[in-house]
Amino acid sequence: GCMVQQEGMVNTIRSSAPHVNLIFGTHNLHELPRFIYEIYTTGEKQIEVLEKETGVHEGLPRHREYPFKALVNIIYGCNNFCTYCIVPYVRGRERSRRMEDILQEVRGLVADGVVEITLLGQNVNSYGLDLKDGTNFAGLLQELDKIEGLRRIRYMTSHPKDVNEELVKVIAASQKVCHHFHLPIQSGSTAILKQMNRKYSKEDYLAMVELIRRYVPDATITTDIIVGFPGETEEDFQETLDVVRTVKFDNAFSFIYSKRTGTPAAKFADAVTLEEKKERLQRLNDTLAEISKGINDHLQDTDVEVLVEGPSKNNPEMLCGRTDGNKTVIFLGSP
Question: Residue 171: how many CA atoms within 13 Å on its side-chain side?
Fold first, then answer.
């Protein structure tokens, strides 16, 4: 996995955990059956970490947690090089699957009872750009929308810099693409966004949200936010709170910045204390919770379509499911 793919990690594991007999990275997952076979037949350790990606390998077997929904990879790797993220270094450059291979996989899933798919990629909006044949994410969604029997299409993760009017209009016109936009902003400060190498400003992000609201008025918008990035001042943090209050996110995943060895940000000077980071995170979460509650309160006494996922984890006598906007609903019903 990603940890093993980092420089020097193989030697670290071999010295600190000599009992480990299989070590491989992100670029040769397709070789797992061979590795296991070699271990069982020869008794020898299998250690193979490739430095470079090896393309897209189709036909790998998959296990589904639910019989009625599935995850479908459409693009591997990342070209963005956000300064805090190790992914481009360990997952390689972007490699898109051919559209016909994706459509064939989804048709097979639908024939097997799947009604909801989630398209996966480090940046799904970049899908097809490396193929250089005119294929893009909007076009893929349009083709998936035509598949009979498929009810819902979700996707993650989406990079704000690649959101455009064509994509939003396709989603607005679609019968199956869910009206849930997960747009990780990470920070509301343009200065910090530049330090993060996110390639958009606060104003750019707000313009994207305005575009989404114009074409998809009922859109659910969620985000990711990092608090305490190196150099973040109180003024920078206030910019983040301003975006949160302006956009009114339905939900957000918020984190304290965590240093990742091997990334540029790991070398940045960091004057923000852990106490300050925790205090800012608490203020952020309080603001997010208040906004989220207000949005959800407006849904009381309304009818929504829910895809039932099974019994509630906290109360097995209740059922749990998700709306088109990816909101969790707990309700009474027959199992």
Answer: 28
Backbone angles phi, psi at 263, to 5 degrees: -100, 155
Q: For residue 70, what are its two tokens?
A: 């599935």
Phi and psi dihedrals of 287, rounded to 5?
-65, -45
13-30 pLDDT, tens digit per residue, is 999 999 999 999 888 888
Identity of the amino acid at 103 = L
Of all helices (H) and strands (E), which one includes residue 301?
A: none
Q: Closest by alpha carbon to 27, among 95, 73, 84?
A: 95
Say if CB 97 and CB 74 are below 8 A apart.
yes
Quick one: pLDDT at residue 233? 96
Measured in degrees and rounded to the nearest 5, phi and psi for residue 254 equal: -115, 140
Q: Which two tokens stand for residue 275?
A: 């106490």
Helix H or strand E encompassing 238: helix 234-247
Helices 137-144 and 165-173 cross at an angle (nearest 10°) of 10
**Which tokens belong to 97?**
């699957």
